[in-house]
Amino acid sequence: MAEEIIEAIERYGLSKRNRKRTLFSRIGVVGCGKEGSLIATTAAFSGMEVVFLEVNEEGIATAYKRIEAKLDKKISNWGLTENEKKVIMGRITGTSNYEDFSGCDFVIEAIRYHDNTGVRRIAQRKEVFKELERVLSVSAIIASNVSTVIVTDLAAELEHTDRCIGLHFLSNVPDSQIIEIVPGLNTSNETFEKVCQFARMINYDYIPVMESSGLVSIRMFLIQLNEACGILMEGISSVEDIDKVLTVGFGHRQGVFRTADQMGIEKIVRLLENLWDEYGSLKYKPSPVILRLFRAKHFGVSTNRGFYTYDEQGNILK
Length: 318
Fold this sequence. Notes:
It contains 11 helices and 8 strands. By secondary structure, it is α/β, with parallel strands linked by helices. α1 crosses α2 and α10 (265-279) packs across α11.
């Protein structure tokens, strides 16, 4: 009787042993608040495995709720099914341990503002970069979701500054699928090209922006907001009608006051002060209208009062 020949079936299949790992198959997000949850949801929706970090179990649970809410909104708009939602949620893992970023080839820092101040935690963000460099491979990219912070400053104390870069997702306007990509002083061309590829993989458009406080989006928005507040102070028009000129007349997705309420008045005050300190131009001094709302703690959607008044679901009350 002939001897039976036994061969491992994995020789003839797509085994993990021979499978080539694709770029950005696993990414990380540090901080899963408003901006971080948008990044995590977008990446998981595009088929990537996502690990997000929060400080404790309560933060992780809250982040999962934010992500589910974003997916539920897609379901209500017929852009997703319940089964697809389950698959996407299965790609997302929450953690409080930096070691769980091991194996990620791209991690984005997106820690939140201090509550009710709009202050970004620069020292803490630098510590995040150091922790990421400790656990990630040398080829992994470390990014920060920046607007007025300079990524070169965040990366200055790292050993491999060439793999650090800035991004800015416009998270305050629904479905605004564009990213500002901000190379630092030492960012390599390879890192920049890879992040451009990441943008394409999540179906976002992108523009390169030189390191600068406010980039393109924030500088243009804040000047427009200050001017709109000036028109409001002069009694020329109302909040609703100024926004209507922008949405109906100029085709904007939403008005400047509505965007300000979503961004948070406390954050807008801090952003304007940062730009005022950086450039010294009067166009960046916060309007008295904005300061009045800030002092009254009418921060916008988060407090149900801002330029508009909102219900608990964030809908404008008529």
